[in-house]
Amino acid sequence: MNSFSKGLGPNLVGVAPSRAIYFCTYSQAKQFWNGLLPPDSPVVHMCSATCAGFAASTLTNPIWFVKTRLQLDMNKDSGVTAMQVVRRIYVEKGILGFYKGITASYMGISETIIHFVIYEAIKAELVSHRAELTDEKSSKDFLEFMVAGACSKTIASCIAYPHEVARTRLREEGSKYTGFWQTLGLVCKEEGIKGIYRGLTTQLVRQIPNTAIMMSTYEAVVYILTMRFNTEFYGKEGH
């Protein structure tokens, strides 16, 4: 049973900072690009998603690298720990060793861009439709955000999934894979086109509910904080 939990530690450690960095950067970048470009346009969402994806990938790549190495450890009796993997990588490759596969992560930003452009478009339609009925938010609104998140993530994952395969292969120990395009080419040559979509079903099962909950939670937190700020700010002004 322990084999199913390999890499769980780094995954738990990485999720919180990765999401925090991503959404914080996305929010700040969106404000910045809204001041330079047509507000809330697709190009603003693309630029914001690119900034967020770049920041999150760069800062958290070492965590996901260690996680992947642990998951790829086939020796069930080795009992290798995350710290042992960290020391081994540092001794062999130095700091740069933790960034192997970072090119594939940057290529994966395309998935983020597709996801957010589609999500923001669906969200805009939902908000516009609801505004015609009422200004009040309800649980139904956040349920709709979950559906929007799930749909946009499904489309984005299906389109950009090959980068996941390339990234995992590049992180293998003693890998024969040396670069992003070289990896995809070699996988196609040896395994056919199906090879670059290997594991897609598992990825969708993991990501869709995760993204649906995450996007709905994000919208709920933003709404609550906005309402609280408006109440405190305008309340004080009223006095």
Write the layout of secondary structure elements.
Blueprint: H1 8-34, H2 42-72, H3 82-93, H4 102-107, H5 109-131, H6 139-160, H7 162-170, H8 180-191, H9 200-238
Helix pairs in contact: 1-2, 2-5, 5-6, 6-9, 7-8
Describe this structure as you would to a colleague.
The protein folds into two domains: 1-99, no CATH class; 123-239, no CATH class. The chain is 76% helix and 0% strand. Residues 1-5 have low confidence and may be disordered. By secondary structure, it is mainly alpha-helical. It has helices at 8-34, 42-72, 82-93, 102-107, 109-131, 139-160, 162-170, 180-191, 200-238. The chain starts with 7 loop residues before the first helix and ends with a helix.
From the structure above, extract its key features.
239 residues; mainly alpha; 2 domains
Distance between the termini: 62 Å
Overall geometric form:
elongated
Return the structural class. mainly alpha
In terms of DSSP E residues, the strand content is under 5%
Low-pLDDT residue intervals, each spanning 5 or more residues: 1-5
Domains counted in the coordinates: how many? Answer: 2
- Summarize the main sheet: none
Report the strand count: 0
SSE order, one letter for each helix or strand: HHHHHHHHH
Number of helices: 9
How much helix, percentage-wise, in residues? over 70%
Mean pLDDT: 82
Over the alpha carbons, how many angstroms does the gyration radius reach?
21 Å
InterPro entries: MCP (IPR002067), MCP_dom_sf (IPR023395), MCP_transmembrane (IPR018108), SLC25A33/36-like (IPR049562)
Family: Belongs to the mitochondrial carrier (TC 2.A.29) family.
GO molecular function: pyrimidine nucleotide transmembrane transporter activity
Membrane topology: Multi-pass membrane protein
